[in-house]
């Protein structure tokens, strides 16, 4: 999440910056590699993810969202659509991170958006 936040703040997915953030924040090579894959995936799909979020929360377009919320949502939406991780785990983790690092209202906002995304995904795949 830190890497995605930094890329968003600088409007660039700078490789040198990424390497330093990952070295400072992750104790082992496997964790750094996974973090880079996740951040790169979310960054690369943000042009598809952001409109989806804005459609579900039109009163809070991504440009108006706190940076932490915006990037937590991007990361979680990417995970929901690109990994086998159970949706409940992804959503719960995003909510906890928003409680820890963002505003008082962020947990409810993040929960609402991700729950709606998850329900859409279920409808698209025919799951209940």
Could you describe the 3D structure shown?
- With 128 residues, this protein is mainly alpha-helical.
- The protein has one domain (2-125): NusB-like (N-utilizing Substance Protein B Homolog, Chain A).
- The chain is built from seven helices and no strands.
- It has helices at 2-10, 15-25, 29-44, 46-56, 67-82, 87-101, 106-125.
- Helix 1 (2-10) crosses helix 5 (67-82).
- The N and C termini lie far apart (30 Å).
- The model has no long low-confidence stretch (mean pLDDT 94).
* Strand residue content: under 5%
| Low-confidence parts | none
Total strand segments: 0
Number of helices: 7
Distance between the termini: 30 Å
Mean pLDDT: 94
Q: What is the string of SSEs from the N terminus onward?
A: HHHHHHH
Care to give the gist of this entry?
This protein has 128 residues and is mainly α. Helix content is 77%, strand content 0%. It is globular.
Walk me through the topology.
Blueprint lengths: L1 H9 L4 H11 L3 H16 L1 H11 L10 H16 L4 H15 L4 H20 L3
Helix pairs in contact: 1-2, 1-3, 1-5, 3-5, 4-5, 5-6, 5-7, 6-7
Keywords:
128 residues, N-utilizing Substance Protein B Homolog, Chain A, 7 helices
């Amino acid at each position: 999440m830190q890497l995605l936040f930094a890329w968003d703040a600088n409007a660039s997915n700078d490789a040198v910056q990424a390497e330093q953030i990952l070295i400072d924040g992750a104790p082992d090579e496997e964790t750094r590699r996974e973090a880079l894959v996740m951040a790169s995936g979310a960054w690369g799909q943000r042009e598809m993810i952001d409109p989806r979020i804005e459609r579900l929360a039109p009163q809070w377009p991504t440009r108006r969202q706190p940076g932490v919320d915006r990037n937590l949502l991007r990361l979680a939406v990417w995970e929901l659509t690109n990994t086998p991780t159970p949706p409940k785990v992804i959503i719960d983790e995003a909510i906890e991170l928003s409680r820890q690092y963002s505003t008082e209202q962020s947990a409810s906002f993040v929960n609402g958006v991700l729950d709606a995304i998850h329900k859409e995904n279920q409808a698209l795949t025919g799951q209940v």
